[in-house]
Structures are given as C-alpha cells and as structure tokens.
C-alpha cells in the first residue's frame, strides 16, 4: 500500500482532503481519453469481478438487503454503466455541429463530493466515481456511518487501479469517521455535489451553495392495463418489488389492477410461490403499524426480508416468501400504505376505468414520490401516452420490472445510473437519470455560419 493510500485512512480535515483532491485533479485533467477510460473501465470491472465479496460486505455492514440480489446488482450495474460510458467522448473536443458551426469542448468541474446512501453502499460510489473520473474530475466519497467500511474498502481498491494506470495520488478519497457535520463541510468545499440519500441530506446539498444533483423520494405506482398477458405482468412486478428486499427507490410500491381481474391478479401473485397475501384486516393493520410508525416509515423494516417484517408484526411469514401483498383501503391519503415502503411490502387496489387508475396513481405520487417514477404494463399506445402525459414523473417504465430498469438497462434507453433525478416535483435540478455529462462543463466555440441567410424583419415577424 502506498503512503498516499495510507493517508486516506487517516482522520484528515475536510479542507486537507479537498486540497489533496484539487492537486490530483489538475494532474488528471491532462490525461487522454484512452487513459481516463482505462481507469474508469477497471473500476467497473473490479466491482463486476468481486460482486460476491462486495455483496457480503454490504449486507454484513448495513444489515439491509439480499446477498444474492446484491451480487446481481453489482454485476448488472457495473456492466450496464461501463457499456454506456465506453464509447462516449468526455475529454477535449467531444462534438461538432456543422450546421451551426459550433465545436464542443469538455472540461472538468473539479472536485466532486459524492454522498452515498446506506441502502446502496457499493454500486452508488462505483457509479458516481466512474462518472466523476470519466469527465476528468477527482472525487471524494462521504458515506453513511453504517456503510463507512464499504466506502473505505472501495476507495483503497479504486486507488490501486488509478495507480496501476499511473494516475495521481488522492484522485479518489473518502471522508473517515463520517458525520453529518463533515458531509456538510465537504459539500461546501467541493465544486459540485452528487447527493444520493435521504431528503434532509439532499436539501442540505442544495443549500451548500455549490451546484448539486440530488434525488427525491420514490413511491412507484404500477398500473396493470387491460388486454395484456396478466401473468407476465405479475411476474415482472414480483421480480421488481422483491429485488434486494425492496430497498431500491424505484421499486414497485402500489398495484392498480382492473376490477374484473382483481381476484385473478391476486391469485397470480400468490401462485408465483414468492408472495404472501392476506385480506385479514387485523393482520393488515399489524403490518401497517410496523411499516409505518406515526405515519413515518419505520427504519427497522428498511431492507429486511418479508419474513423478518412479518416477525416484527407478530405474523409468521414463510422464508420462501419474497414479497408481502396487501389490499389497501384506497389511494393517496386514504391509506398509509400508499406511501413509500423501502421493504418487500406492496399494496393493491382495483380500478374501474384507466382514467381512474391514472388519478389514483397521481394521488399516491402527490402524497409522496412526485417526480420520481411510475410503471405501466400495457400494450395500448394511447394509454401509455396518457400515463406519460398525466403523471407527475420523470420516467415511465413500460412492461419492465421498475426497480431493476428505471436506472437504465441493456434493453431500454434510460441512462444507466444509481441517481434518479425527480425534477422540480421532487425539488431536484434534473428530471432525468444522472449521467457523466452532468459532471462536466462544455465550452462552445462558435464561428460565423458560411452563407447563412439573414432573414428580414418582415420575414421574422410574418
């Protein structure tokens, strides 16, 4: 281990860390696209190749999520993010518009402060680190205290990759002995902030006085349209909602099913062998009380298995069950189950018309999750467009498991990421998936357009 790597594990002041990052960034800024890409690729490949031990580390430290699912997440996110980044220009001249006679030149922002959540302690720093380095920046991770060991381990391993490619010391650093105060100071000292975490942390990022990218709360409604393969839709919802014990912000939270197929839909859920269902009002209330305490999500259920959530509620749920399905009393403010549940518990209600389903989904989002995502299983282009037009969302996931595809996949066009912007609805600066392009400045060189016909005033105002 080099002296610089050892330094990163010392309790340095935030200003010392940022100063080191600035020196490293100025050196790294001179690296060619090929050298930058070699480092970025190997960071993703490290997480891909070490998916199993990194998944075990994450589950053991945070006590959240599913070991098996985290293996899949580590591999899939590393794969899809690098696949998206590998052919993109991000250093020097990156594009030219011949019609407008413009040349686009990419330049780094400087020092990126990457605040990472306890719910995603491996792939979020991997993703944000890859984005930051792809665009010539240095990066400093500020982890949740319950994910500190993961962040420090990744930083050491990532820096080994940087040094293997003759990169500068301190290009990637981590705040040690993390705290809210240290994170706030880091956000004020860095040049740009990526805050993936709770609402308070995101609000603090936007109050730091620096350009910031944050995320809003998720609370994904999923509508099952008529005249589709109902079994396929149900299987995709189960796969999405149960993944990593429901810890992903884009996981399906509340199902709207056609009233004439409501009982059949519930049967299809339970027939998967992965879903525990009850319509016993006393059991439903017990689960409401354990998932939400005084109307707020109980942190003790976040990322726990269905059987563990059942134990907390005093209900025996088989270990084979990956998901708890509960009929709700209504949408929006009519039932607390309409709020975000970062655990494998989802609700279901029937609808009469598609317009009613849209209105109920909107009411859920306006209670919590506006700007984030919604899911729809439909073969009706008119209904798909209606949902896209009417719902206050940044992404509509169609005929896919939302939790594993809203953040980008090899089979859709969403930018691969772990940070999903929610626009002004969610108090965010972007209404799209965070990508490498958000962490670079672009200079535009503009020349006179040859033979450009200048319109007369009469033509302009015609």
Q: What is the CATH architecture term of the largest domain? A: 3-Layer(aba) Sandwich
The averaged pLDDT comes out at 95
Domains counted in the coordinates: how many? 2
Runs in which pLDDT lies below 50 for 5 or more consecutive residues are 1-9
Kindly name the structural category. alpha/beta
| Oligomeric state of shown chains | single chain
How many β strands by DSSP? 17
The CATH class assignment of the largest domain is Alpha Beta
- Main beta sheet: strand number and arrangement? 7 strands, parallel
Instruction: Assign the CATH superfamily of the largest domain.
Output: Aldehyde Dehydrogenase, Chain A, domain 1
Tell me what portion of residues adopts beta-strand conformation: 15-25%
Q: How far apart lie the N and C ends?
A: 71 Å
According to CATH, what is the topology of the largest domain? Aldehyde Dehydrogenase, Chain A, domain 1
Over all CA atoms, what is the radius of gyration? Answer: 23 Å
What proportion of the residues is helical, as a percent range? 40-55%
Number of helices: 17
Overall 3D shape: globular
The strand line-up of the biggest sheet is: 10-13-14-9-8-15-16
């Amino acid at each position: 281990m080099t002296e610089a790597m050892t330094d990163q594990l010392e309790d340095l002041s935030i200003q010392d860390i940022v100063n080191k990052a600035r020196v490293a960034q100025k050196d790294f800024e001179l690296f060619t696209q090929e050298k930058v890409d070699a480092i970025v690729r190997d960071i993703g490949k490290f997480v891909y190749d070490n998916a199993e031990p990194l998944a075990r580390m994450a589950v053991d430290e945070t006590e959240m999520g599913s070991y098996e699912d985290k293996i899949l997440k580590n591999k899939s996110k590393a794969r899809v993010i690098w696949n998206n980044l590998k052919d993109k220009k991000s250093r020097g001249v990156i594009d030219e518009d011949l019609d407008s006679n413009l040349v686009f030149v990419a330049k780094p922002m400087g020092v990126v402060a990457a605040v990472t959540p306890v719910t995603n302690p491996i792939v979020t720093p991997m993703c944000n680190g890859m984005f930051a380095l792809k665009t010539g920046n240095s990066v400093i991770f500020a982890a949740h205290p319950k994910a500190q060991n993961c962040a420090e381990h990744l930083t050491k391993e990532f820096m080994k990759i940087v040094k293997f490619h003759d990169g500068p010391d301190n290009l990637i650093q981590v705040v040690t002995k993390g705290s809210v105060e240290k994170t706030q100071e880091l956000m004020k000292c860095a040049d740009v902030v990526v805050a993936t975490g709770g609402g308070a942390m995101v609000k603090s990022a936007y109050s730091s006085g620096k350009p910031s990218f944050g995320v809003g709360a998720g609370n994904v409604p999923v509508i099952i349209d008529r005249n589709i393969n109902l079994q396929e839709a149900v299987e995709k919802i189960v796969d999405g909602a149960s993944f990593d014990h429901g810890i992903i912000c884009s996981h399906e939270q509340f199902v709207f099913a056609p009233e004439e197929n409501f009982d059949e839909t519930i049967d299809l859920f339970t027939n998967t062998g992965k879903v525990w269902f009850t319509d016993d009002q006393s059991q439903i209330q017990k689960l409401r009380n354990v998932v939400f305490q005084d109307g707020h999500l109980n942190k003790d259920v976040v990322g726990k298995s269905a059987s563990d959530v059942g134990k907390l509620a005093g209900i025996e749920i088989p270990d084979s069950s990956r998901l708890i399905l509960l009929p709700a009393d209504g949408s929006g403010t009519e039932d607390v189950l309409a709020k975000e549940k970062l655990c494998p518990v989802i609700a279901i209600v029937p609808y009469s018309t598609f317009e009613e389903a849209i209105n109920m989904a909107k009411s859920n989002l306006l209670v919590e999750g506006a700007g984030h995502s919604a899911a729809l299983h439909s073969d009706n282009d008119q209904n798909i467009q209606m949902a896209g037009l009417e719902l206050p969302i940044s992404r509509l996931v169609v005929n896919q498991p939302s939790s594993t595809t809203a953040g980008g996949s090899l089979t859709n066009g969403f930018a691969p990421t772990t940070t999903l912007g929610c626009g002004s609805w969610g108090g965010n600066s972007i209404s799209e998936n965070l990508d490498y392009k958000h962490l670079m400045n672009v200079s535009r060189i503009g020349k006179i357009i040859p033979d450009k016909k200048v319109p007369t005033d009469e033509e302009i105002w015609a």
